[in-house]
Amino acid sequence: MGTPRDRRTVVRVLGGAAAGGAAVGALGVALAAAFARRVVRWRPHDDERVLAADERMVVLAASLKTRHPGVFGLRYQDGYALVGPVVTEDARTVTRELREVSGRPPGRGGVSWEGDVHALPSDVGPHVDVLIDAPSGPAPAWRFGPAENATWAIHIHGIRSTRDGALRTVPAAEAEGLSSLVVSYRGDGDAAPAPGGASRLGLDEADDVDAAIGFAVERGAERIVLVGWSMGGGIALRLTERSAHRERIAGLVLVGPATDWRAAIRSGAAAGRVPLPGAAARIACAALGHPLLSRLAGMRAPVDLDELDWTRPGRLAVPTLVVHSRADRTVPFDSTERFAAANPGLVEVQEAPAADHSWEYNVAPEWFTETVRAWLRAHVA
Predict the structure, then answer these.
(1) What domains are defined for the chain?
(2) Secondary structure of the chain in the HEC alphabet?
(3) CA–CA separation, 140 vs 351, rounded Å?
(4) For this UniProt entry, which segments traverse the membrane (predicted)?
């Protein structure tokens, strides 16, 4: 049920009512459950607004996202648009290049600002739709490259994302001769729903991805490279210990990986302007490990955050590339540094130019792809 430190925090939260402060205790419980729910919930988001668009430009409400350097996707009902660099900006608006449109053009209203730079998997190249028989139910996936190949890359997206985002690493794998499987897993909107609509931060989701590894092995895969984005990185790490096929895992490529969920929750609370972010993060961590509060957050069972801490020495056994940026406001770069220090000789860290969470490709696509290719060439391909 989490560490003694987490349990002590729960006792303090729940103890308010027993000590006579019933209102304070109830408020503490509510805050703990609410912030924990925010951490683990899958939820759609139209988080930015289009103000105007023509054939060449799109005007968006100014925000940290819309001002961010790089190339990004806008997803909205019945359409997708690829936007390029900022052309002009002021205190209220940002005008960016409008590079491609799939479906209807963007109109005024809410859009989802995405790291996805491909409207469809066919934009990456020829592929086949396949269905993985996962423990949670049928899980759709895209296969790139020949079905009969000795080395496969399994691309794993993160929380509050979809497999579209993981397409960004497929070109590097294909260029080095690997077949690719871009997978879905419970809760992401493509595979089966997650119980309660909540993630278990990779603990359960890894079982679905393990079924995808089995799919590749059944088709002749002798070596597997796991390519994990954000929470997908934690899933990849868990599979090196728990996969039924772990002896075939030859290496990992991790992008902004969640190697320490306590650190990620603290960082997310600060970036999300949560009131009293340090206290909120401690309470959320405690709630996630508590049998009652975790259920109030929508989880079917509590999580042990120690089990999700990969900065502890002695857990990693395969060569690993980490691509990460110090500008990541969700997963702190410090956790990558501690992960590398805990695994000397196994972890290579490539620091990306200034990019927020999982946008390392978006700010420097050529550098990103060549970095991943070079590592695969040296260690796997």
Answers:
(1) 1-40+261-302 (no CATH), 48-114 (2.40.240), 121-259+308-379 (3.40.50.1820)
(2) CCCHHHHHHHHHHHHHHHCCCHHHHHHHHHHHHHHHHHHHECCCCCCEEEEEECCCEEEEECCCCCCCCCCEEEEECCEEEEEEEEEEECCCEEEEEEEEEEECCCCCEEEEEECCCCCCHHHCCCCEEEEEEECCEEEEEEEECCCCCCEEEEEECCCCCCHHHHHHHHHHHHHCCCEEEEECCCCCCCCCCCHHHECCCCCCHHHHHHHHHHHHHHCCCCEEEEEEECHHHHHHHHHHHHCCCHHHEEEEEEECCCCEHHHHHHHHHHHCCCCCHHHHHHHHHHHHCCHHHHHHCCCCCCCCCCCCECCCCCCCCCCEEEEECCCCCCCCHHHHHHHHHHCCCCEEEEECCCCCCCCHHHHCHHHHHHHHHHHHHHHCC
(3) 32
(4) none
pLDDT at 32: 63
Length of the chain: 381
Q: What is the pLDDT of residue 18?
A: 43
- Are residues 324 and 352 in contact, defined by beta-carbon separation less than 8 angstroms? yes
Report the pLDDT value the prediction gives residue 167, as an integer from 0 to 100: 98
Tens of pLDDT, residues 164-206: 999 999 999 999 999 999 999 999 999 999 988 899 999 999 9
d(CA 192, CA 140): 10
Cα 40 from Cα 159, distance rounded (Å): 8
What's the pLDDT band for 1 if we cut at 50, 70, 90?
very low
Do the Cβ atoms of 45 and 189 come closer than 8 Å?
no
Question: How far is it, in rounded angstroms, from Cα 125 to Cα 130?
Answer: 15
Nearest to 303 by CA among 216, 217, 238: 238
